Amino acid sequence: MDAVKPTNTNVRFLACSLPCPEDDAEQDDGWYRFLVDGKHVKYVATYPKALGGDALDRSLAQIVLGELLPALPPGDWNSGHKVTFVETWTEVYAAVETLWCPVSVNEVDFKQVQNLKGNVLVVTNPFMNVGIPVVVKIATWPWGIPYLEAETTAYRAICDTGVGPRFLAHITEGINGRVIGFAMEWIPNARAAGPGDLEACKEALGRLHALGFILGDINNFNFLVRDGARHKSLKMKWTG
Does residue 1 sit within a domain? Predict the structure, then answer.
């Protein structure tokens, strides 16, 4: 008897968005994001609980790809529905449209160093920033694009002012794909502002206000402080 050949060996599990277990809404599909052949991003929607699992379960990727997901059909498509893939199509997903930086980088070319939170990662790319780690923020799912659009616009407004981390590049989904995020300067050895940094925070906010903008959320975690032997530097970070 011939051995069963593994399926989806050319597929990488990127992310999933599953209905909350306590939700009884049968209309809520599960969403999965895959990378095929190292360059094509595809979105797959399934019926509720069709593939099961918990989005926080680290073994979910192995289980879905190795046991539950049938072979992805070939062809030029980026969206599919139903576990049996009786239907696939090409969907035009929303993209960040405020493109002002001359540099664009493919998300596939990044190597993750650290997960700061959710869709905010510290990564490296040998062809960017001379290999020094940077921070990337991407909209994993199309419905997150409006937040990244607003933040990208904000960075254009404060570019070269020294108020926030340097904006380094737009991030595309695949080669020449839609823009889904951005890369910015990573400030190593920085900490969140504390009570002793109040005056420095006021000074930084004053520089932002002088440009005609307000931060909107002035909690201490939106201020990055780097202490030095002779000085203290402070930069604000934007949150979407």
Answer: no
